[in-house]
Design a protein that fits this description.
By secondary structure, this protein is of the alpha/beta class. Helices cover about 40% and strands about 10% of the residues. Helix 1 packs across helix 4. The chain binds 1,6-di-O-phosphono-beta-D-glucopyranose and magnesium ion.
Length: about 220
């Protein structure tokens, strides 16, 4: 590919906030007597807060009003934000700073494309809030992954054609979204095995510019 930009997912790619999402959903589910485990949690990756709640509630046997659902989503977010307050730059996943430096030296643009409404807070906590050419978060989109909107918006802001962008994702929904945006998809962690991933890496530490450029 002719690589001009790399668009990064946030939760689970740059920082392990995915574990905090799990803990916060787990607490909410326990309070309401709903079964929840790490396998169900996997299906929430990249999915918006309200859509995630609907998936969690499917395991329960009660129906809730939309006001009750709003309160539940708020309670989950409160737990999550409390956990986020502990974040420091030490939580940046290994290899991230090195890759960002290499991309900057090669004049390749960078962006964050996250479904999270907390993305800017997280980036501030880990002191990466000035590290990217653009940040598109859950407050700026109508449709979350697997919709391509978040990636297309990021590409538009940095002025790079979708086909010249590589997306780094840990979510199956994110790989689907990247492919739908006509971008190259790099799967890490849980998305490594996604059949549509153009490049499969264990983590961000395995990504090099040479490997990205070698994508067909
Ligand atoms: P919030 P990403 C996504 O972030 C998470 O993967 C997903 O689990 C979460 O539900 C979603 O953000 C919304 O997050 O409740 O903080 O707005 O992976 O797209 O960076
Ligand atoms: Mg993610």
């Amino acid at each position: 590919m002719d690589l001009e930009a790399v668009i990064f997912d946030l939760d689970g790619v740059l920082v392990s906030t995915d574990e905090y999402h799990y803990q916060a959903w787990r607490k909410l589910a326990d309070v309401h007597g709903i079964y929840f485990d790490r396998i169900i949690n996997e299906s929430l990756r990249g999915v918006s807060r309200m859509e995630s709640l609907e998936i969690v509630l499917k395991r329960g046997d009660k129906t809730y009003s939309s006001d009750e659902k709003q309160q539940m989503a708020q309670a989950k977010n409160q737990t999550y934000v409390e956990l986020l307050s502990k974040l420091t730059p030490h939580d940046i996943l290994p290899g991230t700073l090195e890759l960002l430096d290499a991309l900057k030296n090669a004049h390749i643009k960078t962006a964050v494309a996250s479904s999270s409404k907390n993305a800017k807070y997280i980036l501030k906590k880990i002191e990466l809030d000035r590290a990217f050419d653009a940040v598109v978060d859950g407050t700026m989109i109508q449709n979350s992954k697997p919709d391509p909107e978040v990636f297309l918006k990021a590409a538009d802001i940095i002025g790079v054609k979708p086909e010249n962008c590589a997306v780094v994702e840990d979510a199956h929904s994110g790989i689907e979204g990247a492919v739908a945006a006509n971008m190259k998809a790099v799967g890490v962690f849980y998305a490594k095995i996604h059949p549509k991933a153009d490049l499969q890496c264990n983590s961000i530490a395995d990504i090099t510019i040479a490997r990205l450029n070698a994508i067909e």
